[in-house]
Specification:
Blueprint: E1 4-7, E2 10-13, E3 16-17, H1 18-25, E4 29-33, H2 34-47, E5 53-58, H3 65-73, E6 77-80, H4 83-91, E7 99-101, H5 108-117, E8 121-124, H6 127-140, E9 144-151, E10 173-174, H7 178-187, E11 191-197, H8 208-226, E12 233-235, H9 254-265, E13 271-274, H10 278-281, E14 285-296, E15 301-305, H11 314-318, E16 324-326, E17 336-342, E18 351-359, E19 366-369, E20 391-395, E21 398-403, H12 408-412
Parallel strand pairs: 4-20, 5-6, 5-13, 6-7, 7-8, 8-9, 9-10, 9-11, 11-12, 12-13, 15-17
Antiparallel strand pairs: 1-2, 2-3, 4-14, 14-15, 14-19, 16-19, 17-18, 20-21
Helix pairs in contact: 2-9, 5-6, 8-9
Amino acid sequence: MDHFIYRDGQLWAEECPVAEIAAEVGTPFYLYSTATLLRHYQLFDDALSWGPHLVCYAMKAASNQAILKTLAEAGAGMDVVSGGEYARARAAGVSGDKIVFAGVGKTRGEIRQALEGGIRQFNVESEPEMRAISEIAVALGVEAPVTIRVNPDVDAKTHAKISTGKSENKFGIPIARAREVYAEAAALPGLKIVGIDVHIGSQLTELAPFEAAYKKVAELTPVLRADGHEISRLDMGGGLGIPYTRSNEAPPLPTDYGALIKETVGHLGCEIEIEPGRLIVGNAGILVSRVIYVKDGEGRTFLILDAAMNDLIRPAMYDSHHDIIPVTEAAPGAAHATYDVVGPVCESGDTFAKGREMPAVNEGDLIAFRSAGAYGAVMSSEYNTRPMIPEVLVKGDQSSVIRARPSFDEIINRDTIPEWL
């Protein structure tokens, strides 16, 4: 469910007409709904209400400080994967004890940054990283809380580029070596083992892969405890998918996911951490664009938009689907047309959809990409010297630009020309 609905023939975001926002900020732009963000966060929080838990929003999905602050004020922790994300979370008012630091390539500078600023835990991905954390913690005279990410060799049955739990993926340590690696962690100074971490991928549309991975964690936990390790937290990762089409086939609900966690590991008496991102923010955001031209080609019609692959890279990178709708609702029985929906970037890859049937639109009309809140703005760029597009947040009948579109001068003036030129 989201809060982008047609009312009197126009698309609204909560209590704000989308066309009015477009007239004010210009197109293209991202538009987020506070009500949807909070509803989706609450679904996860409620799903784990059977025991102690923390829902850590995976901020790589959308990291604007306004989004982070909205979720943090509702009680969310944060899952970060870089020093920049850590700094964003802290700037948004998130305390260090609610930040989990994940990622396979934590630098020594990032480790120091988190230890000095406060951290709930590091999800350790390798022995060299573990030794680096130990060394830096000792130098700072602090104790670093750690979980170790185990790779369960489970096929998440998702896109190959977002699968993280198979043996050939770069993430974690093989679960068969867990006892050995935990023994080394216990022997290193400056480390405090607090639990186990597992994460098998993103955009999962069924629970079976989660179940397979979580059962392996359930088997590992008493073994590690028998070895003398404190296992008080289980970080179950995230990755629950969202419906990118309005079909009858929908991914499992957070309630089902929470019930599965209880069924597989609830008996272990651990605090549960999860790291959802896409499901919290994905359907909470749309990308609004304007039709520049309708171009007749050889056996096809091109719908050329002012949004491009640099604004929304997912279709080019993952062949992903986004529903595309007109901002002015088509009247009953209105004509439909079939388009290749493309942007203005000089690459054939700048294509959002091929052969897409949708209500006929004209030059100058506004359209919206649904389910664009996750991995949209955060993966955008200034390719072709196209300015990063605005982000707008609505709450009820209020709207606010939470990231402004830079001018060409602001972009160009970031360059520095050497003295010899």
